[in-house]
Amino acid sequence: MRHVDEYRDPARIKALIAEISETVSRPWTIMEVCGGQTHTIMKYGLKQILPKEITLLHGPGCPVCVTPPALIDQAIALCQQPNVTVCTFGDMLRVPGTESSLALAKARGGDVRIVYSPLDALALAQAEPKRVIVFFAIGFETTAPTTALTVYQAKQAGLNNFTLLVSHVRVPPALTALLNSSDAEMDAFLGAGHVCTVMGLEEYEPICAHYRIPIIVTGFEPADILEGVLMCVQQLETQRSNLENQYRRAVTWSGNQAARSMITNVFEISDQEWRGIGLIEQSGLRLRPEYAGHDASVRFANTLQDQPTAIASNECISGEVLRGRKKPAECPAFGTRCTPSRPLGAPMVSSEGACAAYHRYAAVPV
Are 135 and 111 in contact (CB under 8 A)? Predict the structure, then answer.
């Protein structure tokens, strides 16, 4: 494997910019799907050094950001139940639900614990058998295999005090939903390399064919992003719409078969609500019926059915940001009433959120 410095090499970046500039002849709009790509773009100032013909849009590829407020409200309700512990990643603590957050619930006495892996939550279930452990499982197909493996191990071990509150989502249906919207502006996509490392490429080829749009799967270093942009431009300038793999050092056509099998064995595809976007058909994963004993939504159905309907903030425009319709700095609350320490919306909280990237890295208007 090549050393990471090769993908940050100034000479290589300069050469890619020059080739993009020589190739582009008209304006093109490219959406990077993943928030990790957005942070690379902002951190290294790629927007500023790309030719003016290239517009980059930020997509919905931040799993924390698209987790619906209703599920956060459910996690808050669960952590306040006797002998129940909610475990989640640190990013989720300050994400607003309808009226509160897990951080506020914890401050008010709820049992919320940060973990780095669902396996940490499983270990907690083993160590504290009198408590019900709820792992708030979020993420795209990248993190779903680990969640699936963990609940599989819990079932095999008979750990009935380990449960999941699931908010795993799938990327291809989200791209389709964006392309089906009446105001779709993207000419090409930069696909998320880590998702495709697990799932492979085959799900994206029908999207390219049906919508006649290029999809280039990339890595997350500056040269990865720029090479992906170049590959998009080369296709667009020659009126092609193919699926291409820039991230060849990690992504194969079929992905990680063992991980995919684990997902399929534990989860089934379902419709899913996306924060700021709405219901997207076939875009979620839910536990199969044989894992109902480990499904927090089943086990605590009576507690969760009384949760109020979530209402989005009228001030936060995160939904527009996630759909690529607006940039974070266009929000009137950006950097004033909405900051990483006092967020109105999830994209200002998450380490993959577009608003957090703009707030951290944007030194000049972009």
Answer: no
Find the helix or strand (DSSP H, E) in which 149 lies.
helix 144-157
The separation between CA 54 and the C-alpha centre of its own chain, rounded to angstroms, equals: 24
Q: Which of 276, 265, 248 is nearest to 62 (CA)?
A: 276
Domains parsed from the chain with CATH numbers: 4-62+179-245 (3.40.50.11750), 65-170+255-304 (3.40.50.11740), 318-361 (no CATH)
- Which of the pair, 332 or 111, is modelled with greater confidence? 111
The radius of gyration of the chain from alpha carbons, rounded to an integer in Å, stands at: 21
CA distances from 161 to 102, 155, 199 (A): 21, 10, 30
Say yes or no to pLDDT of 4 above 70. Answer: no
Decide if pLDDT at 363 tops 80: no
C-alpha 218: how far from its chain's center? 15
Task: For residues 82-105, give the mean pLDDT.
Answer: 94
CA–chain centroid gap for 214, Å, is: 21
Three-state DSSP state, 272: strand
- For residues 273-290, give the mean pLDDT: 95
What single DSSP character describes residue 350? Answer: S
Closest to 58 (Cα-Cα) out of 329, 334, 246, 315: 329
Task: Round to whole Å and give the CA distance between 25 and 198.
Answer: 36
Check whether 295 has a pLDDT greater than 90.
yes
- Determine if the pTM surpasses 0.85: yes
